[in-house]
Write a structure and sequence with these properties.
This is HSP20 family protein. Belongs to the small heat shock protein (HSP20) family. Pfam families: HSP20. It comes from Tamaricihabitans halophyticus. The chain is of the alpha+beta class. It has a domain of 95 residues: Immunoglobulin-like, CATH 2.60.40.790. 17% of the residues lie in helices and 39% in strands. It is built from two helices and seven strands. It has a four-stranded antiparallel sheet with strand order 1-2-7-6, with no helix packed on it. A three-stranded antiparallel sheet has the order 3-4-5, with no helix packed on it. A hairpin with a 2-residue loop joins strand 3 and strand 4. It is elongated.
């Protein structure tokens, strides 16, 4: 199977030939090959550190709760899921990434004994509040 770079290079070469021939270009479609080409992607996040909490807001428009997974691990907060491709009839530009995504956010080391206090998905924004105690570092004891 050709690598991603080989597929991109082949697509660019074929595109250049089409332009040189002056042929009519058909609209781009978000098919399986283009989905695989541009995945995985990372959603944008804002992180707000408070005294005994850490709030993560992730920009996830068009993501259903059923297609979303989040968890607190030793590496930090892991957010993953999949954005289903919406029908793009007549669309000639598709900037919205589709397919699987994953984002890992490091939790401040001063926050120990962390747990997810609450999580809400509203209007395409996932907000997760992680609580814990202020300590010397992750796993530290007082």
């Amino acid at each position: 199977m050709p690598s991603v770079f080989q597929r991109v290079w082949r697509w660019l070469r074929d595109f250049e030939r089409e332009v040189q021939r002056g042929s009519d270009l058909r609209p781009l479609r978000a098919d399986e090959s283009t989905q695989r080409l541009f995945t995985p992607w990372e959603p944008a996040v804002d992180c707000i550190e408070q005294r005994d909490r850490f709030v993560i807001r992730a920009d996830l428009p068009g993501i259903r709760a059923a297609d979303l997974d989040y968890r607190l691990t030793r590496r930090g907060f892991t957010l993953s899921g999949i954005r289903q491709a919406a029908p793009r009839t007549g669309c000639c530009l598709g900037d919205v990434p589709v397919g699987p995504f994953r984002r890992i956010v490091t939790i401040p080391s001063a926050l120990t004994e962390t747990k997810i206090l609450c999580a809400t998905l509203h209007d395409g924004i996932l907000e997760v509040t992680i609580g814990g105690r202020r300590g010397i570092g992750r796993g530290a004891t007082e």
